[in-house]
Amino acid sequence: xxxxxxxxxxxxxxxxxxxxxxxxxxxxxxxxxxxxxxxxxxxxxxxxxxxxxxxxxxxxxxxxxxxxxxxxxxxxxxxxxxxxxxxxxxxxxxxxxxxxxxxxxxxxxxxxxxxxxxxxxxxxxxxxxxxxxxxxxxxxxxxxxxxxxxxxxxxxxxxxxxxxxxxxxxxxxxxxxxxxxxxxxxxxxxxxxxxxxxxxxxxxxxxxxxxxxxxxxxxxxxxxxxxxxxxxxxxxxxxxxxxxxxxxxxxxxxxxxxxxxxxxxxxxxxxxxx
Length: 274
What we know:
Elements: E1 4-6, H1 12-22, H2 24-30, E2 32-36, H3 38-46, E3 51-57, H4 63-78, E4 84-88, H5 90-96, E5 105-110, H6 119-122, E6 126-130, H7 135-148, E7 152-155, H8 165-171, E8 179-181, H9 186-192, E9 196-200, E10 206-207, E11 219-224, H10 232-237, E12 240-243, H11 255-272
Parallel strand pairs: 1-4, 3-4, 6-7, 6-11, 7-8, 9-11, 9-12, 10-12
Antiparallel strand pairs: 2-5, 3-5
Helix pairs in contact: 1-2, 3-4, 7-8, 7-11
Protein name: RNA methyltransferase
Pfam family, one: SpoU_methylase
Keywords: Methyltransferase, Transferase
């Protein structure tokens, strides 16, 4: 396997990676993101996602990561993409990695083209993220949605960049099975999706377990940031507000945990009537 060594922080390629690792604006400008870890690299390979570069931690080189880098390069060649492999100085690798002491492999992948708002998307179930700024929560929400069968993820402008490396890491490959729409405000979402807009709102509404019928037809589940919850703009477009009844000793659930409850209750109800 032919690889390029990078040992200096002044290397242009490294400087670009560093910008992308830290800035959503750089991700949009450069048109690519970074995904760290063996699981993500294998998920990209299995999903046949074109990989522009494989970045290996020079001091942690082993047969497993070498073989995976070669397999990714071979698969990308079949798709007409020339994958470059880099051995990056250990300290430089840590500077761009979203986690400490990771597996020592990272991949560079292009952002997908913005999907057209066709009937398939319009009539799909959707998870809408309204101002969710924590990268770990955002990634877990994507992972939870795809696991529950909800594959369209839309997000407001105040939500964390869904293609940021930390979000990619938290989602653990779920991006590759999702359709992701960013920069969508609630009023715009109302024009893009035909589903019934359901607001997950701890402040009131109907008990998710007691209320009947909300799961019928496509739904757009709206989840807000921890603390403030859903914005007024999101609540204005909601067709129904639903809450999860919890014990009084706990004020609320983490937004990712709340989404898991809502989306899998939806899945359970639909499976029950098949």
